[in-house]
Amino acid sequence: MLNVGVFGVGHLGKFHLNNWKEIDGVKIVGFFDPNNELAKEVAATYNIKRFLDEDKLFDACDIIDVVVPTDRHYEVCRRALRKGKHVFVEKPLANTMEEAKDLVNMAKEANVKMQVGHVERFNPAFLALKNVPMNPLFIEVHRLAQFNPRGTEVSVILDLMIHDIDIVLSVVKSTVRNIHASGVAVMTDTPDIANVRIEFNNGCVANLTSSRISMKKMRKMRFFQKDAYISIDFLEKKTEIIKLQQQGDEDTFSFDLETPNGTKTISVSSPEVPVANAIKLELESFVSSIVNNTSTVVSEIDGYLAMEVAHQIIEKINSANRQAK
Question: Residues in the chain with pLDDT < 70?
């Protein structure tokens, strides 16, 4: 039995508590949160012990689940790693690149498992493509959200776009050659809407748009590659593949298309999207990596690489905005 302690029981922390309670082989020892009113409510509602001493909670656990605001990630993770605890930390990994690099080194030195909460890796619509060859030449991404004060301690890049940066890096598997970015602060002191073009050394180009001041929600990603067009709707949990039909293809329907090279048969398929709880899946995978001593699906290094690109984007935006003044 693995003992779990949760740091931070706000909006997302409550989701974590609910899911930890449903995972076999773990026990929630307690939680820490400095907000007295919130802590009393959670302790009563979930029948979970509130710890007033952080060190006592660290010492009572095998796993530390870090769901505190981003600017506190480093402090909590650092203390947990120094005590040899396995750490699950919500995205982004840390607040600064220096902090992120330090955590990567400490996790390696402590020889423990560390996973970053890039939950879209566990979105059923993305999981439906696990057996589909992905070699995109161009990627188009839109992640739009209505304004919510929660999470605005960081820019839209670290709040929303970092999900898509992580997905793109996991699929493209190439180093970044160049980044073009523009962003505007509308409701907060940091960019609330941004458009980014990432050029990779293998020739792939990704165009990402993120906004937290939109009238409607959207979380879509489209991959264009030599043999296929693949669409993922992370919000509606739908996936579609359009490609040149090949023998043995299982398609939803097909149609003929006249091209300069003759008639081509186009296959349209919708892979079965499993009904799944992404947060529960990511926490279960983390437990599995500990029990079976395997690599985490989204390692601290993955989290660092996503942050590295995100901070390059932020610097590009800041530099452009300084020049515009």
Answer: 150-153, 245-260, 262-266, 324-325
